[in-house]
Structure to design on (360 residues):
């Protein structure tokens, strides 16, 4: 009999891409997706899953009965979450339910089954004030850490998993960090296998980016559909920096973790595009403009939002050391593929990508 590979949040950006990528890769696994279909765009992702013959069950991870109905599973990739810092601030109950209680319910399913557990955590677990204290300088097109910056858990190359965790990080980050703690306890108590991945920005086709979550996709979509764009925070210069990881690099990593679970079991990794795939919003605008051939007027909002970060770049050295994995795709790949994806379905995607104010 085939084993069950459950992807929670399976109609979301990461979950649906993973499902399509993993489906059929293992002769002995059947991919099953579960999603409450709350996020905007999940209908289109659901249609894509159907086209690939992947089973999608409408269900909520906050409801243990919905998970119990699935019966025994052999592997859980937990991608169900409210992934926005802003939305978690506006609706703390929902964020705690989906991000923390949801993961707890998934762990219970893993315990009963038993199942291996792969968790999509976030760089947002790191405290804001400590990140902001890393010595930085202002360059013509971006802020950057000083080349000689170095301390516990950081260097010019990026943030490692040794970065201190004391301090405030946003409710979103707190729910994910609490989930990480629960996972480690469950792995230990019930002799399960699992791995935690702290991702920075993930981007690529099939992402329904919003201003506050999925910024890279949002930037491309705004250029394509000619909506308004602003540099928000840090004086409105657009010099804040992130790194971006292609969704296909995420899929390859998860495949590797499934195949080499013994090697990554009980590990916690920082994962991101890394310095090579870092960009400031200002630089992103230039690159997106060149690819889409659209020059957008940008407005500036000087005031910085709560929990925003001046610079975040992941240091991938631990995962590379453990598995050999490193990002293979560039920011240019991400932007041009996202742009082509929109071109290929321009009318169909318009209701989901051209008005970001309405819907989740
Ligand atoms: N996209 C990124 O840049 C990024 C970065 C770091 C970490 N992550 C993590 O990766 C995971 C996937 O993120 P994503 O970008 O695909 O987000 P997404 O919003 O596209 O996908 C999440 C999915 O979970 C579903 N969902 C939410 N609450 C649920 C619930 N209670 N029950 C069932 N389904 C529920 C949503 O409908 C959505 O389809 C999340 O855990 C997120 O924290 C994402």
């Amino acid at each position: 009999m085939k084993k069950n590979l459950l992807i929670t949040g399976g109609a979301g950006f990461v979950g649906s891409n993973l499902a399509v990528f993993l489906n059929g890769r293992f002769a002995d696994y059947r991919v099953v997706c579960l999603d409450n279909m709350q996020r905007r765009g999940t209908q289109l992702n659901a249609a894509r899953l159907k086209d690939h013959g992947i089973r999608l069950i409408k269900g909520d991870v906050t409801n243990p009965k919905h998970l119990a109905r699935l019966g025994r599973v052999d592997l859980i990739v937990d991608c169900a979450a409210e992934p926005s810092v802003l939305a978690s601030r506006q609706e703390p109950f929902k964020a705690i339910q989906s991000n923390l209680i949801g993961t707890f319910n998934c762990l219970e399913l893993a315990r009963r089954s038993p199942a291996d557990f792969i968790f999509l955590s976030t760089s947002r677990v790191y405290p804001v004030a400590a990140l902001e204290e890393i010595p930085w300088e202002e360059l013509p097109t971006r802020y950057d850490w000083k080349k000689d910056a170095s301390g516990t858990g950081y260097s010019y190359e990026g943030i490692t998993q040794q970065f201190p965790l004391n301090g405030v990080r946003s409710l979103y980050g707190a729910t994910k960090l609490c989930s990480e703690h629960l996972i480690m306890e469950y792995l230990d108590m019930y002799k399960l296998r699992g791995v935690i991945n702290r991702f920075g920005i993930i981007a690529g086709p099939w992402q329904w980016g919003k201003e506050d979550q999925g910024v890279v996709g949002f930037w491309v979509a705004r250029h394509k559909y000619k909506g308004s764009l602003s540099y928000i925070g840090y004086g409105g210069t657009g010099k804040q920096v992130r790194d971006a990881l292609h969704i296909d690099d995420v899929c390859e990593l998860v495949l590797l973790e499934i195949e080499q679970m013994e090697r990554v079991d009980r590990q916690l990794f920082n994962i991101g595009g890394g310095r090579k795939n870092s960009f400031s919003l200002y630089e992103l605008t230039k690159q997106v403009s060149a690819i889409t051939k659209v020059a957008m007027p940008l407005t500036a909002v000087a005031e910085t939002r709560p929990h925003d970060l001046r610079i975040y770049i992941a240091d991938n050295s631990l995962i590379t050391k453990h598995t050999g994995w490193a990002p293979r795709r560039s920011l240019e790949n991400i932007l041009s593929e996202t742009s082509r994806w929109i071109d290929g379905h321009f009318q169909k995607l318009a209701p989901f990508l051209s008005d970001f104010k309405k819907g989740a």
Remarks:
- The pocket of nicotinamide-adenine-dinucleotide is lined by residues 9, 11-15, 35-39, 42, 60-62, 79-83, 98, 102, 120, 122, 199, 201-202, 214 (CB under 6 Å).
- The mean pLDDT is 96.
- The longest strand covers residues 29-35.
